[in-house]
Amino acid sequence: MRWMKYRGGYYEDEPIQIPPERVRLLPPKEYRAMRALAAEPALSHSNETRIFYRQAKYMEYFEDDCPYRQGVLHYYPTYQSLTTPELRGYFTWRTGLRHGTLEKTSLTYAYLYLYELLHQIGSKTKEEGLERLIWFCDAYGELDPRILHYARLWIVDYAVYYDVSPEMIRDFTHPDFDEALDILSRCDEADDEALFPAILRLSSYRLERSKGYRQYPEELTRAVCTGYRKLNDWYARRYDRPYTRRLYNKPISMWYIPFHSAVFYHQKRFDHYEYRVSPAQRYYCDNDQWRMEQDYAAPERSQELGVFVRAADRLVREAYGVKAPLKPGTETKTMVKLLTETIAEQKKASAVRVKFDLRKLSGIRKRSDAVGQRLMTEEERYVEPEPPAAPEERGPASDCILSGNELRFMQILLYGGDLQRFLSQGHLMASLLAETVNERLYDEFADTVIEFDGNTPVLVADYVDDLKGMIPS
């Protein structure tokens, strides 16, 4: 014991009493130990990503209870870049999150937590880690959408880097597009049941909305599928590659960095590695050099395939006499030739041939009349003369269920005119007219045909040709 004599007595050391409320605010020893890791010889010359990974593993299951109420802003945050009070605020928020309390916090804390998830901090398996990452993206993304752009990219990176089943990331890729493209590239192997939906998925022309398809679905399905196979065969023989290479003629191959823009330590090493999101999207790593290959530049509907499908719709309507014909579009002569042949073959195969012996027809009629006369009474034998037939109405106007202002409204939208003058002269409202027209035509199109761009009524582009076939100019 230290003491010092003074007049009348002695001095001696006494422990300083710290109030209990202040004891709770003292940082736990784990913070000092965690920061000391960065000074270890093995890490002293390491980059910040390796230090972050080592510290994250040390603090993997640590919990705290000391909220930080002030704002926190750090770009590419790490434990080292945060002050101790800020760190305590982070681990307090993370503790609540792990116990089921999801609260909106600073973007710094949200990204710091994402960085932990990318390193599988707090996860027993790679699948559990991906589930946690997807859950946080969905749940916290509703509170702060700013995380979504990178979080969604990192979800795919996670599956690629840790080799997790592509099925777990279907909502973050475009497997339906890739599968459709794969089916088209193997169209000779696929039946119509698989090929037709694939063509509709990739076509810019929405055939499912077409009047021709609603009236002749089986005929159009066969025409589209058989015609596409013929077109693919013609193109392959001429250019030695499938037609899909023309539809999507810009495959890409590019260098790739998993978890780009994240604080991430690449602790794994790859000599030769391949990961397939789908047949059309692949990732490779050779000697830690990554690249991504994709059979298309962007998962977009094909305009050229849309031209082909529209041509099939036009020619089937023409062949079966649909009253709403389509005008020729930009289809090629080859498309028209192959589709015309296909439709003709279909009609010939489905035609029912019945042979009549015309020499026996008159005798059959006489015997039938004689039997009928014997069975009739006098009253039944009287035949009331039929009224003269009304002249047949012709032209598209006979099929139009619109009249008056609704008809004039549609004529202006279809063929041009002064819409504002028409509305003002009749004291009419475009919104009410559009609502009435959409209701009247719903049975025909099973959809609205008029939409609004601001206050301006516009026709749905996919229905314009059908409407022109119904409504006179």
Unreliable stretches? 353-398
Q: What is the string of SSEs from the N terminus onward?
A: EEHHHHHHHHHHHHEEEEHHHHHHHHEEH
SS strand fraction? 5-15%
**Count of helical stretches:** 21
What proportion of the residues is helical, as a percent range? 40-55%
Biggest beta sheet attributes: 4 strands, antiparallel
Q: How many strand units? A: 8
Structural classification: alpha+beta
Instruction: Tell me the distance between the termini.
Output: 110 Å
Overall outline: elongated
The rounded Rg comes to 37 Å
Observed structural traits:
alpha+beta; 473 residues; two-stranded antiparallel ribbon; 21 helices
How is this structure best summarized?
The chain has helices at 20-23, 29-37, 48-58, 84-98, 107-118, 126-143, 148-162, 175-185, 192-202, 211-215, 217-239, 244-247, 303-320, 333-350, 361-375, 378-381, 404-415, 419-426, 430-440, 442-445, 464-470; strands spanning 3-6, 9-12, 252-255, 272-278, 281-286, 289-294, 450-453, 456-459.
